[in-house]
Structure formats: structure tokens, C-alpha cells
Amino acid sequence: MMRQAGRYLPEYRAVREKSDFLTLCKTPELAAEVTIQPVDLVGVDAAIIFSDILVVPEAMGMELVVEEGKGGPQFPTPLANDADVAKLDTQGAADKLQYVYDALALTKKQLDGRVPLIGFAGAPWTLASYAIEGKGSKLYRKIKGLMYDQPGMLHDLLKALADVISVYLVRQVKQGGADIVQIFDSWGGVLSKDAFLEFSLPYMIQIIEHVKSETDVPVILFAKGVNTSYPELANSGADVVGLDWTVDIGEVRAQIGNHVALQGNIDPIALYSRPENIHNEVRGILESYGNHPGHIFNLGHGIDKDTPPEHAKSFIRSVKEMSEELYRTGEIEERKEWNATV
Amino acid sequence: MMRQAGRYLPEYRAVREKSDFLTLCKTPELAAEVTIQPVDLVGVDAAIIFSDILVVPEAMGMELVVEEGKGGPQFPTPLANDADVAKLDTQGAADKLQYVYDALALTKKQLDGRVPLIGFAGAPWTLASYAIEGKGSKLYRKIKGLMYDQPGMLHDLLKALADVISVYLVRQVKQGGADIVQIFDSWGGVLSKDAFLEFSLPYMIQIIEHVKSETDVPVILFAKGVNTSYPELANSGADVVGLDWTVDIGEVRAQIGNHVALQGNIDPIALYSRPENIHNEVRGILESYGNHPGHIFNLGHGIDKDTPPEHAKSFIRSVKEMSEELYRTGEIEERKEWNATV
Fold first, then answer.
1. Which residues, other chains included, contact A151 with Cβ-Cβ below 8 Å and sequence gap of 6+?
2. In chain A, which residue ranges form alpha helices assigned H by DSSP?
3. Strand (E) or helix (H) holding B319
4. pLDDT above 50 (res B322)
5. Inter-chain contact B277–A251, Cβ cutoff 8 Å?
6. Which residues, 6+ apart, have CB-to-CB distance to B235 below 8 Å?
7. How many CB atoms are located within 10 Å of the residue A320 CB?
8. Residue B328: active-site member
9. How far apart are CA B162 and CA B199, in angstroms?
10. Under a CB-based contact definition with an 8 Å cutoff, are residues A240 and A342 in contact?
11. What residues does each domain of chain A span?
12. Is the pLDDT of residue A147 over 60?
């Protein structure tokens, strides 16, 4: 579950009470502790390292402020011009993120092979949006202003981010032992298709190619809200394409063929509903998906902070029970080769 | 342009200074004045009646509060249970909206045939979301809670809204003289495809069927963010399907065939950029659309409040000049039959 190590768990909140968000990200012992919580408590099949996508621009030299309840993380001094972009540290940034590799390595050791460990990074477009807007945005006026009127500056920034993220993900694998890495383009969905294909996807492809050239781990690509470019996402070189909850997963499978796995895609808000209704939603998605290879069941976005933990557990139980029932009755075939890869 | 009568125009702000938002909606002389402003000032090819989608739940008995700069319109007492839904006035609501028909009729008279006049209503799903959440929402937890756990109550509410909207739109045509009506589903995009097909689309189809049985005006259906259901939208009975800016209009045309017109779909934020770049964006959309019948050029969402009016004019000029250039050079054929209808 995306954002599975988080505020909906009382055990997470207990750790967070003793340290602020960024300290938690930067203290491997604490990050490992909360990363493993949902494995023990909720029964998920993989651990996702506890971290934040914005540590990358921070490592490149931007001041990052996270004050919970104050409208999300912020860069108080967003990038304003070419000189600001040129000043970003692309050479030393991956080194400054050593605490992430250490957190992964410690988590991996503590997991002791129970479940795979997923590393991640934000996509260049999403990180550039934060770096330019300074915070979450409704209209993305500043970065879209660059896109239309100063595309050169924006491309320079995206390239700098892609370079750093490429090294960052490889080191998550080589130093941290991540078994899979995921790229999150949280804000690609605010773009026209043309703009997505010019300003977001090529930089994700650059990262994927670098990860693939340096490691042998699968790559998951999740571009939330990008429901207009599945064929392009499926041909990005990623092994898995994540889907948000708005699309019918069976239709996407039919549209793109079987050469990548799909991840998704129950509406996270469904987890507030009664367990029998969660169960029905899970059934609907499994039935739509049908007997195709390569499905990682997941939410279509991060689990919400007030979700009852019992419901999260119930959701995981539903997925596991129903999958096994479908294997048993022969409605879907268990495919070892896909299980082995993703 | 969606929201073309609005805050980006100094002439609109001058009228608004003298009366609050709802008074403006409810005073036919003022509504007509601001409705006609963009026709005179910006050069658009149609007038859209100045109103608000939330006047419908208000006419059904809900208190509506619009305080600008305070996070948008609110229903301070949202619907909480079956009894609240049962209390809604479905019989008298369309009568209470007489001021809208009067505003349309006065606008029609003042336009004197210069351009067609568009009436509109919010979709049942979108209005239900406001009525249940009480205001704009990020997660739609309350209405999604109903959807999963009390679908009967939600269907009752959606049916009540669809009944009222059906009569409301017919009277916009018969009493107000609207030449076209548009249904806006601003929030259909937060739903899974299954949920959209159960809780939103059928009620819009009910409305379209009613309008079609009582009038001969074309119907435009715009479901913002619903990029997963173009074939279903194209088969809704609507004459025109509106597209937001995230999708490639040529790809949608190829997907659904030629039996409905398409409306859209430049990113409204592009109108902040330099006129030559707006021009390039317009060209990209016209080229993607190609030589198919039935294109209403429009924004992919409402014009933003700080858009420079000169840029809006420049956008309209670009669309007109480039369309005429394409006709002249024979790259697209002028189709009188479509022009006559939509």
C-alpha cells in the first residue's frame, strides 16, 4: 500500500511523537522501525522505505521545511531563475542522501528476507514543480509559465534532477539493497499529453535506463492522474506501471498488452467503508483484471491518514484470500515467473 | 471559454463591486450585463449565461453561502441522512429558479442574434458532492462513504437532483431561449470508472433524454477529469463531449469516431503565457484534431481569475485566424451542417 508506513498507524504516531518528520527520514534506526511496522501489523507483502520525495531537492541545496498541519512541506526559497538552477548541487547530492541508503540497508537486515524492500524517488517533473512553486499548488502557474515561456530553464532543471535521481536509485539498490525501485510522478496528471511527453516522461525514461544499465531490479512507474498515456508508460522501459483508482484496470490491460505488470488500483477512500464493502471493491478489481499475468494489488494512491488500521488489515486479507480462491478454483493461474520478478 | 464572464475582466469586477455574487446571479439585468461582456470585449462566438451550479441545491431548500476569498461556496448545513434528502423540495425548485430563465431571456433579447446563448447546470454527482460535503473537498470522504455504505440514500439524492435539473434545463430553453445547454460534472473525475458509470453517468443520461424529449437544442456534456470513459460519454446522447486539457483531442476523436462533436481543450493556464506561445498551443490542438467534423474550440477548464484580458483576446484571435487559414488552405473543410448545429 502506498504510504503504508504512516499516520494511520498508532504505532507510527508513537514514533513520530518523539521526533519530527525529517529527523525520522534521516535517522536510519527510526526509518527502519516505521518501515517494518506495516509488514508486522498489517500483513503487506512488501516493505516500502520510509522517506520523502523532497529529500532530493534538499540534498541539491534547497532548504526544506516540513511542519505538519501547515499545508504540507515547503521550499521557502523556490527556484526563480537560471542562476538558481545552475547553483543546484548535482555532484554531491547523492552522497548527502547516504542516510537513505543506510536506512534501506538496516531495514533489509531487519526484514531478514521476510518480504522484498522497495526504494523510491519522485519524478523530475514532480520535484521540479515543488522546487519552482515552493509548495503544493492548485494551478501550477509558475512551472507552467516556465514550460510555455522559458522551456530551456525548465529542461535544465529536469535534467539536473534526473541525473541526481538516477544515481540515487542505483545507490538505493547497490548500497541499500532495495529489491525494487519505484518512481512517483505525483503531478504528471496536471499536464496536457503533449507536455507530459515533453517535460515528464523522457526524464523518467532516462532514469529507468540508468537503473537498468547499473542494476537488475524491476522498476515501478506510477504517474498519478496520467490516464491519457498508458501505451507510452508501458513502453517506458519500466517493468510495472502503477494505476490510480479512476481507471478500469482490465481496460488498461487490454489496451497495452501483457509486456508490463500493472499495479493498483482500489480507491484509498474505499478503505473507510465497511469491510464487506472493501471486499466487494477488491473483487471488482480482481474480476476486471482477470486471468492475465503480472498484477500487484495496491491502492490507487496513498492510504489516507485517518483510515482505521483494522480496515487496512481487512483489505490486505481480502486481497490475499480472494487471490488464493481464484488460484484454487482455476479462475486465474498462479504464475511463478511473474512472482519471481515482481 | 468556460467561466468567460468572470473575474479576469475588469468590467466584470466593476459590476461585482456593487453587488455580491448571489445577487448578481439573481438579478437578471446584472447577469445579462456580465454575460454579454465577453462577447463584446473578448470576441467569443457564444455567450454563456452568468450563474452558478449551486443555485439548484439552494432552490431545493439548502442554505447557500458564497463569500469570496473564503474557500469557495458552502452549504453550512450539508445533508446528513435520509430524512434530509427526503426534505429536499423537488416540486417547487424549478419555479424558484425563475430568475435564471429571466436572465437568459433578457440576455437573448440584448444579444439580438449576434451569438448563440448557452444555458447550463451542474451534474447530479457534482451537486450531490457539494450537498453532502458542504463545500469543495479534497478526498470526498463523506459522499464516498455513502457510495460504499449507503448507496440507496445517495441514489435517492442523485435522482432528486436529476429530476430537478431536467426541468430546469428545459425551462432554460423554453422560457429563457437558451440555444444550447451544457451539463458540467466538475467532480466526476474523482470516481473509479465503475463508480462513475453507476453514480454519475446514468443521471446525466436521464437529463439528456428529458431535454431531448422536450426541446431540440444540442446538449454539451463536460465531465472534467473523466479521461477513462470517452466511449461511454460519446454514447450518452449528448451532441458534444467536452474534454479537459490533459488529453490529446485527436486521440479521443480516433477512439470514439465522429458521431459527436468535441469541445476543448487548451490548458487554461497556457493563457498566462506570451501570445506567440498561446498561438502555438492553439496550433497544436488544431493540428491534432485534424480534418474531422465538429470541433468547438474551448479551454479545457474555466479561465483563471488573474488571466490578462489581452491574452484571452489574443487566444480567441488565434483560434479564429488559424481556423480560417486552415479552411483557406484546404487543410480542413468548413462544414456548414456542423456549424449550423453546434
1. A199
2. 10-17, 21-26, 28-41, 55-59, 82-87, 93-96, 98-111, 124-133, 141-149, 151-174, 193-195, 201-214, 230-234, 249-256, 275-289, 309-328, 336-341
3. helix B309-328
4. yes
5. no
6. none
7. 14
8. no
9. 11
10. yes
11. 1-242, 246-342
12. yes
B54 touches chain A (CB under 8 A): no
Q: What is the pTM of this model?
A: 0.95
Got the DSSP string for B331-342? SS---HHHHHH-
Report DSSP state, residue B188: G
A253's grid cell: 490491460
Q: At A91, phi and psi to the nearest 5?
A: -80, -45
Question: Would you tell me how many other CB atoms lie within 10 Å of the CB of residue B63?
Answer: 10
Considering the segment(s) A1-242 as one domain, its CATH architecture is Alpha-Beta Barrel (3.20)
Task: Give me A59's grid cell.
Answer: 540534498
Give dist(CA A163, CA B133) in Å, integer.
43
CB B181 within 8 A of CB B173: yes
Contact yes or no for A225/A200 (Cβ under 8 A): no
Q: What cell numbers appear for A26 in the block?
A: 534521516
Sheet strands (E) in B271-315? 295-299
Given CB atoms, is B273 within the 8 Å cutoff of chain A?
yes
Question: Residue B196: its chain A contacts at CB < 8 A?
Answer: 246
Give the H/E segment covering residue A261: strand A261-266
> Given the DSSP bridges, would you call strands A180-185 and A219-223 parallel, antiparallel or unpaired?
parallel
Residues in chain B with CB shorter than 8 Å from the CB of A269 are 139-141, 144
Backbone angles phi, psi at B68, to 5 degrees: -60, 145
A273: its cell numbers: 467503508
Pick the CATH number of B1-36+46-232 from 2.40.30.170, 2.60.120.1440, 3.40.50.12710, 3.20.20.210: 3.20.20.210
Report d(CA B166, CA B208) in Å as an integer: 8
Which is the catalytic residue, given B8, B12, B16, B102? B16
CA B210 to chain centre: 18
Residue B335 CA neighbour count, 13 Å, CB half = 13
Dihedral pair phi/psi, residue B137, rounded to 5°? -135, 155
Q: Does A148 touch chain B (CB under 8 A)?
A: yes
In chain B, residues with a C-beta closer than 8 Å to the C-beta of A192 are: 245-248, 265, 267, 300
pLDDT tens digits, B273-316: 999 999 999 999 999 999 888 999 999 999 999 999 999 999 99
Tell me the three cell numbers of residue A225: 492522474
* B225–A contact, CB cutoff 8 A: yes
For B154-163, write each residue's pLDDT tens digit: 999 999 999 9
